[in-house]
Amino acid sequence: MSTLENKKADAPYHHGDLQRALVDAAAQLVADCGPAAVSLREVARIVGVSHNAPYRHFPTREALLAAVAAHGFEMLFEGMSKLTNESDPAKSLAACGRGYIDFALEHRGIYQLMFSDEIQKGSHPALHAVAERAFESLERKIAALSPQVPTVLATLTVWALMHGIAHLILDNQLKRHVDDPSYRRLIDTANRILVAGLINASAEPIDSSEVICI
Amino acid sequence: MSTLENKKADAPYHHGDLQRALVDAAAQLVADCGPAAVSLREVARIVGVSHNAPYRHFPTREALLAAVAAHGFEMLFEGMSKLTNESDPAKSLAACGRGYIDFALEHRGIYQLMFSDEIQKGSHPALHAVAERAFESLERKIAALSPQVPTVLATLTVWALMHGIAHLILDNQLKRHVDDPSYRRLIDTANRILVAGLINASAEPIDSSEVICI
DNA sequence: CAGTGAAGTTGACAGTAACAACATAAGAAA
DNA sequence: TTTCTTATGTTGTTACTGTCAACTTCACTG
User: Fold this and answer.
1) Rounded CA gap, A132 and A74, in Å?
2) What is the pTM of this model?
3) B contact test, residue of A62, A161, A167 with most B CBs within 10 A
4) What is the pLDDT of residues B186-203, one digit of tens each?
């Protein structure tokens, strides 16, 4: 009954909030079956609308997927913000790392979409902005932990490590090495190595030839 | 002239080594236009064969892509092996890291394919085997550097960091933070943090509640 | 109350993966 | 030699996709 079936029964010509409904349906589809399973026609079918209706709101398939990804970035950012309040930067960083991986595990499909090459993040300024805020919040923690290392590079290193773990998990690359389905011990080890590295890393390369080579 | 044009002119019913030719053409297509651009029909067109001929050699599109990916894994493994001969494990590790990123940058499309979710690595034992060899070679270096940390977890951390950097680069996530197109300074910083972390990380979590939480 | 423009619909086209039925050629069996 | 078998390619078809174009509906504005 209720909204959905009424819509089918009444079949009003105008949907009311089709744009929102399309993004919701696509997000659900991404969550259930992965980004590859999303077709505009299937989404339209789910919402109960003609196969071309989505084009009134999204110029292309990629645009719809980008909207779903933007939603994902906001969720991720909100989750990370809540974990940022600890006073100890090392603990705060570790909590962020766990939160990042947890998000990737819980929202597998959307996470894959967010970092998929199907989406050109450059052309979607909303994504850009959210990512930038998250990055800056991370930068402050890193700077506190590791003032001797250039903050941007250290932050990118931390981000890359989290990102790499998430990717390896989602690609099922770890199942043959790690039993724990929550990957707690791996994440904890990675965090320990990371924090120890940030604190103890030298400010500049030991051997400058290493940087210049090639 | 020669082989290719002769084949078009003579148009022999049987290609001779179609399987090989299909993989080569697909690899070229992946390298030039990315994994998404690969369609069986396009590959067949390039090789000069009917749209259904590939199905005699590959049951599905994914199977052809998996063959291309396997080729990529072998290339990557060969490259890493050459960088493994240094005596100093820290330098050897750093060289491996650079080699890994260089491969991803040089063979962008194939690297994306290798770690794409379009391919189920589990169902292709050849991939499995190559990846396993590479992992074990890495493990030996890590164990030398960081005997106090469980080797598998430390190795996974290292791999994840390399993987994460490669992904961020290929997704163009770094362009707004890093100018250097070779990313030498970033990679060097990541390596310094990593080595310092591996050497200085404590053996077990400082606070066991961190591991159990959630 | 006409009429304008946004939102949704129907129809079409080109491209795709995959299946089925058929054609060809190369080698084994007679 | 001649026939049979089988792997390899081909043609044809189905069902699906994204996207364009032209049509319809309807809410709101002057």
Assistant:
1) 12
2) 0.84
3) A161
4) 999 999 999 999 999 988
